[in-house]
Design brief:
This protein is mainly α. Helix content is about 70%, strand content about 0%. The protein contains six helices and no strands. About 0% of the residues are buried.
């Protein structure tokens, strides 16, 4: 729902980060924290967490995408195969009538 905060501590530093956590002026956070601002301990915990994550590479989104793509592709293939198998005879009655009509037309030609 929000941005990657891996480099937030490196970007802002401890004092500006504390100010941001004290105010929480973000529109998505306002409904959650309008009546309950973060305590000093909660802000310190968040700052410690962001400091511990500083300098680390953000988690790659490709791994999560691959984990979702492979089962999705398999499910799509299974559903496509099931639809093909269930619909294998759906035009048989139409084809029989067309073939009979074409053969009758060939017989009547000189």
């Amino acid at each position: 729902m929000g941005p990657d905060l891996t480099g937030a501590y490196d970007k802002y530093g401890p004092e500006p980060l504390d100010t941001v956590l004290a105010s929480l002026f973000f529109p998505t956070m306002e409904p959650l924290f309008v009546g309950r601002p973060l305590t000093t301990g909660e802000r310190a915990d968040l700052e410690a967490f962001l400091a511990a994550r500083s300098g680390q590479a953000p988690a790659p989104a490709r791994a999560a995408t691959a984990r979702l793509f492979v089962p999705g592709a398999l499910l799509f293939a299974a559903l496509a195969a099931a639809m093909a198998w269930l619909g294998r005879n759906r035009l048989r009655g139409v084809r029989i009538a067309l073939v009979r009509g074409a053969r009758a037309a060939q017989r009547t030609r000189p």
